DNA sequence: TACAATATGTTATATGATAACATAACACTT
DNA sequence: AAGTGTTATGTTATCATATAACATATTGTA
């Protein structure tokens, strides 16, 4: 697979390779296969560095692999698999997908989405998790899934704006 | 407009009428109009009692008003207006819309979505809001919008399950 | 009334996701 | 290695959600 056309530091490249290796280990432990397709999708998401929609992923698959045509079910099935094993997140407010930086973590992951640069940073947060659990218990609500997506300007973009614009 | 076909207690009917009145006041203060279409959409959402998708709303508009055909842009524009003035929320994890039970409140609204009965309950929550603000400030992230959607079983459904099933 | 601004109607199309069925790859048994 | 069940992918069609672009109508105001 040819590398996607984004600027990547060497350390990020290394981190992405490690993320794929971790994914492989997780799949092995669950006795499921990180097939070529699934690995390609995960790698594209890691390398791109920003959330990608399913159709953008289809285009990248066609551009960066030897596949000629990729139909929607192909990529959606790969995404479903990666979601199931918590290797990626779906960002509902963007209809886009992004790697899960820590698939084994159980608690709440908050996603900070920069409306300026498009980067979505994930952060574990026990405080928010506790607040949600308390809130839910007050309603006797049994939590199964939670979507926490914060949009705004990231620190980097805010600093840049202050200096230039 | 004929009432939508759902069971409604008198107190809920009254509450919904008041919610529409509040919406009118809010629009007056902002010098914008809660037109017939917009009021119909808001009323349908209030009466239905559960989140509704845009296309379901189109069907209900056709069924419950004297409109013959309602095209997508018609309902989406009404939804955009109601969203802008915070009279409704979009639930991203469902692609559906639900009334905002307190349009004037500024802080975080958490939405508890029951996967069993479909009811989405909204709850203001200062604790979660503070936790989010703290989390964001640690990343020097400037919050503009937040989506907090919790899915699971509501208290009522859990009680019913315990007794019957 | 005439005008500008706002709102709605109408047609077409973009974007996101899945159903249903066919084929291929894998993994296990004999 | 051949057969068999399971898992994964390919393929076509379609559903579901949302918007662009332009036409017409309604409203508020000079």
Description:
The first copy, chain A, has a three-stranded mixed beta sheet. A two-stranded antiparallel ribbon of chain A has the order 1-2. The mean pLDDT of chain A is 94. The radius of gyration of chain A is 17 Å and the shape is globular. In chain A, α2 packs across α4. Chain A is of the alpha+beta class. In chain A, a hairpin with a 5-residue loop joins β3 and β4. Chain A has helices spanning 10-29, 36-48, 54-64, 72-84, 126-138, 155-164, and strands spanning 88-91, 96-99, 109-114, 120-124, 142-153. Chain A is built from six helices and five strands, in the order ααααββββαβα. Chain A binds chain B through residues 92-93, 110, 112, 114-115, 121, 123, 125, 127-128, 130-132, 134-136, 139-155, 158-159, and chain B through 92-93, 110, 112, 114-115, 121, 123, 125, 127-128, 130-132, 134-136, 139-155, 158-159. β5 of chain A pairs antiparallel with β5 (142-153) of chain B, so a sheet runs across the interface. The first copy, chain A, binds a DNA duplex (30 and 30 nucleotides) through α4.
